[in-house]
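Checklist before submission:
- one chain only
- standard amino acids only
- sequence pasted in full

Submission:
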Amino acid sequence: MKLELQSIQYNAALSDDSYAYSAKLYADGKHVADVANRGHGGCDEQHWRDHSARLTVEAYFAALPKRDTGYQLKGEPFMSQPDLESWSNEQVERFVLLKTIKAACRKKVVGIIGTDQYTFKFDPDKLDTPYSDGQTARQLFIKRNPGLTILNGLTDDEMMEAIRPQSGAEQSR
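Returned file contents:
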């Protein structure tokens, strides 16, 4: 099953304990529900347009393996069953991160080395223009900063992979 959140509307000012957002849920290309959260720590609101799709989506998440939360309870890993709400939260977090990164990439060169973030005051439109010696600014930035991954010009999935290489949180569904 392919799930997508589209038309995400995020409001940072209303986001207190959780993301304040609204979005349209699509399952296999069909708009099946509207989901939202008011940002005050409560549960997501789910307004189903197709109630048979609700059962299918719930069964889809119920069939997924539990995920390790990184916490322990009585010395045992605490596992969590993925559900629509946790998935939606991950998608909104992805949306917010990408929006922030793309805004920075419009004005500067943005890169990361490990978990450290760097910005360079350089016109990103000139990043791949070759100099007289044939090298580009992108190549020079990487040469002068070993391990640097430049986020400008990457696809959304490549950006998420670069900023969260060890988390495994992003899975295609």
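Reviewer check: Helices lie at 51-63, 84-107, 137-144, 156-163.
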